[in-house]
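Curious: why this fold?
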Amino acid sequence: MESLTEKVLQYQRTHEGLCDLVNEIGPRVYQFPRRTMGWDEDACGDFYVFIHPRLMRLLDRFRNQGKPFESYLWAVLGWQLRNFARERKRSERSWQVSLRVDQGDLVAPEPSAADGGENDARGLRAFARLGAAIRSGADRRNFLFLVLKCSRVLDEESARPLASISGVTPEALLSLASALREMRRPRGERLETLRCRRNKAFSQSRLLEAELQFETVPERIVVLKESLLRARRRMRSAASRMARVGIAPTNLEIARILAVPKGTVDSGLYWLKKKLTLVYDPDSLRTA
């Protein structure tokens, strides 16, 4: 009866009989994880799906050096099984980490100023309570400059009281805010790209930290620590670059939208901020 080694060598010469070889090798590959590591049927099936695309390359690389093909097959399967087990364990830990993140067990990085939103929203609520301090036409114009600084979070609900203080209609205020957001859309896209990079690096660092807790091989520990340092550097770099992407409209952009000189916006904001010192008191914003 022809041995498996002879069948493989015959296939290498003629490239015929591949299906018969795969059918003969397949059950051995499928049962290999069960015999060596005691895995269940699902895990054995996953390993077979992982190996199957590599079977043709395995058959082509075999060289007859006096040992049967089975010896070569077990050696290759053992090496591939270790890689597969490592990736399988990594995948399981990734799921565990993601579940803990969903459950609030892990704390995401503190949002930087570039993440925006909350301080601006609190500022808008504080502005709406100080309408009595806005008396002259110049105050109302300067107040409009100030409100447009928070155009990113301006909505219909907050626009009504702020528009009445600014001396414009809510529709006009919302239209100006929309024009500013459109003008700054490229920066917003840039900010979102950097935020995704930061969050990806954060997730990778958490996963690597979880892997380090269970790793015992010294060489692998060194590799994981180096990867963790790189992930943390990427996270810090993305956060630093986010901080340099301003989310509030610049004075020049507000001046262009309103068709006034930039110096008018600069001086108007300066004097209004001095007048409304309470609005810019951090304690006032936290309690607003």
